[in-house]
Amino acid sequence: MSPDGVGQGGGQGVGASLLRKEDARFLHGRGRYVGDIRPAGLLEVAFLRSPVAHARLLGVGKPADAEARVFTMADLAGVGGIRAASALPGFRVSEQSVLASGKLRYVGEAIAACVASSRAAAEDLAAACSLDYEELPVVSDMLTARAPGAPLIHEHWPDNAFLETQRDEDLSDLDGIAAAKVTRQLRTARQCMVPMEGRGVLAEWDPRLEQLVVTSSTQQPHIIRSGLSEVLGLDEGSIRVIAPDLGGGFGYKGILLPEEIACAWLAMRLERPVRWIEDRLEHLTANANCREHHYVVTAWADRNGRLLGAEVDATVDSGAYSSYPFSACLEAAQIGSIFPGPYTLPRFRFRTVSACTNKPPILPYRGVARTGVCYALETTMDALARQLGISPARIREVNLVPPDAMPYRNLVGKVFDSGDYPEALRRAVAHFDLDRIAARQAAGECVGFGLAVFCEQGAHGTSVYHGWGIPFVPGYEQAMARFTPDGVLEIRTGLQNHGQGMETTFAQVAHEVLGVPAARVRVVHGDTALTPYSTGTWGSRAAVMGGGAVAEACRLLGERALAIGASLLQAEPGGVEISGGAVRRRDGGAEVTLEEVARTWYRRPQNLPRGVDPGGLEVTGGYRPDPDTGTHSYACHAVVARVDTETGEVVLEDYVIVEDAGQMLNPMIVDGQVLGGLAQGVGTALYEEMPFDASGQPLAGTLADYLVPGAAELPATRIDHMETPSPWTRFGQKGIGESGAIGPPAAIVNAVNDALHRFGAEVMDLPASPARVIEALEKARAR
Amino acid sequence: MTRLPIHLTVNGEAAEVLAEPRTHLADLLRGELLLTGTHLGCEHGVCGACTVELDDAPARSCITHAGACDGARIRTIEGFAGDAVMEALRGAFTAEHALQCGYCTPGMLITARDIVLRLPDADEVRVREELSGNLCRCTGYRGIVRAVLRVLEARRALKG
Amino acid sequence: MKPAPFTYSRPADWPAAVALLGGGARPMAGGQSIGPMLNLRMAQPEGVIDLRHLPDARGVTVSGGRCRIAAGTTHAAIEDGAVPGRLGAILAGVARRIAYRPVRNRGTVGGSLAHADPAADWVAVLPAFPGDAVAVGPAGERRIPLASFVTGLLSSALRPDELLRAIELPVLPEGTRWGHWKFCRKPGEFSKATACVLAVPGEAPRAVLAALDEPPMLIPDATALIAAPEEEASRIVAALPGLDPWRAALARTALRRAVRMAGEDA
């Protein structure tokens, strides 16, 4: 299924399933993560964290013998608060104190930094601190957050909402004309992203360079530098941010951390290296921060299943503060613009609320709002189909954007670049013997078939983000390319590679353009001192933006090399070309390798032609697709699920993904992204849930309570690729990094509900845990 | 605080370290012996990132008391040079794209090696069950499962 | 997530180990239950007494129709066949599904039982056997029937000055039928409901219902359950207080399926 080595570049270029260059260090335990770095004189930090969800903080008692090693906000002179505003009208700005000051707003909020020579000793200090606080009523649920009389989390706000957005359209006539109308109320659970490595930061002051060096497990080193500069009052030139190897990100490391700021300040104050490494308890209980949505969806269709309109009222539990840089409203406000999904929805109204609650601030997790939206929309599509008595495939087929309408602008202005959505659906369904599933159902087996079709916008840039007005707006992506004197091609990118395989795929892009063997290409990333500015790795943008930028930098470098090579070949510049890692005469005569060109520039300058570009063999190239509204990859997920009606357990028997990432840079890596996303999507669908009690306490403190899917929980999976190039990107590639995590909850719950249909039962809330399945069955039985 | 003298053989070499009695084996390996290939993922025994070989069998170094290992033989991911099974697994992990961020990989490899040696007849279902104590958040496991099966099958083919 | 400070001692013999009890020190065998609790600071003992290196800490001996499993015998040893015969086969099947192999390599049957987590496998399964826990204290050994060993959440019939030394089980004849069913959402996860049925030829069948956040419940004569598992399971579970609908469903299912498995066990 994965076409191996189909690139123009002879097995190493774009389209080749080149094995990963970065694997060797990880396979030998030589990956270098922030927790592996141990400079001399290292001090470790443990944070005293809030034990309650909402309180007035009256005082922190420092241990008598250790007052100089415990720091509260009162000590952090000159440090500002974290402000992540959005320019969307009506957005209310929260100011997050780096260490809590005045009020405590969620369990786990950092209150004091405790410094010692070991983490254990730092934890002893935190345990020895005393806290004086006055508890306040807690807002533990997003739906009651705005109820009259609800306690105010930010007291100067009129109510507990960061933002409300809406689109009005009168749908009152649809009841009269629709053949089917369904309304569903659905919820997705609050989740933890659970990268295997948590967050972590090591801060040092470099007196020689007069520079704060912050090594952080971050997806966005350049953005963190800007954020640190704003909060610490240092110019950006005096801050260097290094992102070493990261043990996973998924969005969790796309944030300016209070802990980062505190460690940076401590390193300057104490003139010692200072680090904080998040442990799993902190990850689970202090930072459960994604995915919690609530929907009320109504949809109308005619008798053929054609959608006549839809209405959605969506609330996202955004937690207590607005996170930097993505803000508290990205998730909810996005719902309005992506709810129409891959369909030609003719009429639509929505209202979204970013609710403020006494929970950790929300962050965009792989798929961002799309996972919840796909779940709400696609389960509604199935409900419509059931009411109309048509198949789930049929109702989708009549509503999907047809290929001849591409590029297609939908009613809220999203522009889909290319693709054949109905074909993805047809291919996915063709993998299954639906008659056999029906026969099993008729024989009394509790088994069902589920579908989800969706598209994923990726690499959207300035034209999309300027409207959000959040702390950064992505613009042109840059890459640097240079030859070393021995002819190694160095690529420098401000993106951060943490599993996506960029050290390989960017080498493939460079090979595609210059023909340099991938083994002779080195990709440098993750360091503001070594790389051009970038907003970093997020939003499924690296393959499109980084791929385009690397190609452009290599093209420019090639022009420089071409001029030198032509001179060495005693040819006119127009008479030579680059291919296969060499400058060749077009007339088929002599060639000179790029290594020889590099050697000439650096070590034999006497052989350079007159008028050679003195900039040499080092260039920066910039890139932005035009238009930059983003690529739309798309996929159809299809699954057969079996339900044990006695235990509520759901078993996934078979799973098929048909997806279109445009031209794949490396099909093996695309598969890896899709399968990894699938595993997280299965977690969202069936396992992962951080419950909070009414007092705002998180209830799953270990991975024995917060269940992350393992090898035994993942179904046998087939991936079928379509490859419709995007007309707007350098190679036709599309962002696909998040796609796998979007479809599974919808497809799986549709299969579960298909299985439960004969009992009259339906699961509404995620995850579809055994307890929820049994509850649904008992509810149906009681009716 | 009194420090505890601990004698170990680590990756074939004798090591003597003084550690606080509360130290767990993973912190001893990482902090005192600078063997940072052993990773901490949960520190409560569920995720498997810290799995090392302890007296010839895989063990969780994060919930194993360092002092209790006095006199033990330990092998970490840094200690498998020349081990044929480990080399085969490493090759298979790359060939099957069984790693992305690499954080779970050392523990995954040590568990995988134990599966290959202890359960030479394991099929896919058994491999998945045996891998259930090692969490990976990146790959979706397919590459890992295929890599382990690839090595198992190669060894079975060799035996004929 | 680092433990609070504690002292570590490694006694040379059992009387020395017993003498170290009291004063806030906790025994540790494989450390796979206490290890996480120490890291999470859910347990903050003054000291830890390492039992792993005691003489006869592990091993299996059979004599006079009884099988004595030293408390420090690992789950992995049992999984790999340390216990002979029919009994060994039954126990190996239980052991294989405890946590994960790296945990089983260190974790011990005695440590797990003495830890007395109602969801733990040995806690749930051992009362099915007419056997004893062998405790050792200042006055020597005493036997505690397995059916009454675990008394509550993390509490057992061991006295504060006693250690668990061994478990003694009857050797089982071929022809003994066994059914064991537990519900875990993932392999290695703690059970949410466990049932087992032991039918020794010529004896009344025994059954246990466990892992319901309470000490295991022994049904000393499970004849009625085996005869009518649907009705009896419902009756038994209906009498249990405080179960939510899902756990009640699991409990009924556990009993029925354990009965069925025992019936199919040749």
Automatic annotation (TrEMBL), chain A:
Highest taxon above the source species: Bacteria
Keyword Transcription: no
Domain Aldehyde oxidase/xanthine dehydrogenase a/b hammerhead: residue ranges: 28-137
Signal peptide start-end: none
GO molecular-function terms, A-Z: iron ion binding; oxidoreductase activity
Record keywords: Molybdenum, Oxidoreductase
Pfam families, per database record: Ald_Xan_dh_C, MoCoBD_1, MoCoBD_2
InterPro entries: Ald_Oxase/Xan_DH_a/b, Ald_Oxase/Xan_DH_a/b_sf, Ald_Oxase/xanthine_DH-like, AldOxase/xan_DH_MoCoBD1, AldOxase/xan_DH_MoCoBD2, AldOxase/xan_DH_Mopterin-bd_sf
Alphabetized SUPFAM superfamilies for the sequence: CO dehydrogenase molybdoprotein N-domain-like, Molybdenum cofactor-binding domain
Keyword Membrane among UniProt keywords: no
This protein's name: Xanthine dehydrogenase family protein
From TrEMBL, chain B:
Regions that span the bilayer: none
SUPFAM superfamilies in the cross-refs: 2Fe-2S ferredoxin-like, CO dehydrogenase ISP C-domain like
Lineage: superkingdom: Bacteria
An example Gene Ontology molecular-function term: 2 iron, 2 sulfur cluster binding
Record has Disulfide bond as a keyword: no
Keywords: 2Fe-2S, Iron, Iron-sulfur, Metal-binding, Oxidoreductase
Matching InterPro entries: 2Fe-2S-bd, 2Fe-2S-bd_dom_sf, 2Fe-2S_ferredoxin-like_sf, 2Fe-2S_ferredoxin-type, 2Fe2S_fd_BS, Beta-grasp_dom_sf, Diverse_Oxidoreductases
Residue ranges occupied by any 2Fe-2S ferredoxin-type domain in the UniProt entry: 4-80
Pfam families: Fer2 (PF00111), Fer2_2 (PF01799)
CDD domains assigned to the protein according to its UniProt record, in alphabetical order: fer2
Record's keyword annotation contains Nuclease: no
PANTHER family in UniProt: OXIDOREDUCTASE WITH IRON-SULFUR SUBUNIT, XANTHINE DEHYDROGENASE IRON-SULFUR-BINDING SUBUNIT XDHC-RELATED
Protein name as catalogued: (2Fe-2S)-binding protein
From TrEMBL, chain C:
PROSITE patterns for the chain: FAD_PCMH
Annotated SUPFAM superfamilies: FAD-binding/transporter-associated domain-like
GO molecular function, one term: FAD binding
Record-linked InterPro entries: Diverse_Substr_Oxidored (IPR051312), FAD-bd_PCMH (IPR016166), FAD-bd_PCMH-like_sf (IPR036318), FAD-bd_PCMH_sub1 (IPR016167), FAD-bd_PCMH_sub2 (IPR016169), Mopterin_DH_FAD-bd (IPR002346)
FAD-binding PCMH-type domain sequence ranges: 1-174
Highest taxon, organism lineage: Bacteria
Keyword vocabulary terms for this entry: FAD, Flavoprotein, Oxidoreductase
Protein name: FAD binding domain-containing protein
Organism per entry: Roseomonas indoligenes
Source taxonomy: Bacteria, Pseudomonadati, Pseudomonadota, Alphaproteobacteria, Acetobacterales
